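To whoever picks this up:

The nightly regression suite flagged DUF4352 domain-containing protein as changed. Nothing in the input moved, so I suspect the structure step. Input below, exactly as stored in the fixture:
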Amino acid sequence: MKLFRTPAAVLLFALTLVLSACSNGEEAAEKSTSTAEAADTNSTKTLPSDLSEAVAADNPFFPDRLTRDAVAEKEILAEQSLDQSQTADNLEVTLEGIQYTKLTPASSYASSFTGFQDPNKIVAATAKLKVKNASEQAIPLSELGAFLETSTYRILNHNILEADTGEIDPGKTATKYVVFLMDQKDFKKEDTFSLRISSVLDEEEKDLLAADLTFDLPAN
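Regenerated output under the current build:
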């Protein structure tokens, strides 16, 4: 199986540096602003608990960090609402939708998008997940590991570009937007993908996921 390791690793490292620099700049600015303003700045990293207005007619894109931090402009190539559920003892995950978008990186982030065949032809696949915590401990969503797979290759998700509603308390439900990036040429080749959730790590890097969860995704 072919792995797209280099683009994922290079982009993840580059974007981590850029987004971290932006976050550090925000933190410095927060020191001279009110508490209310600082709280508003932090909202770009974690989604509000009420997502009813996150995807609206004037902003139809899933609110991952590509959108919320203006990392890239999006053009919708395909999208579909879904209702697929999988359970692994302690977690129930429902795939509610998939959105494929062509990206135009913002000038401040353009140099971070390296390792692709054509930097002007990058596709993002953003999957919307509803996650229910059926365990007796809180489960973080920020360190969810996933792959987008075909019969010939797989793509690792980009945590730095994702968004969620935070840690899930026992018995509660939260939303997670998982992001994958690929060359547009590869996207056009495929009719279907498999989305495989492979891990959910806690602060001690212990995997809290009892078993892999796999979903079928339409492509074009």
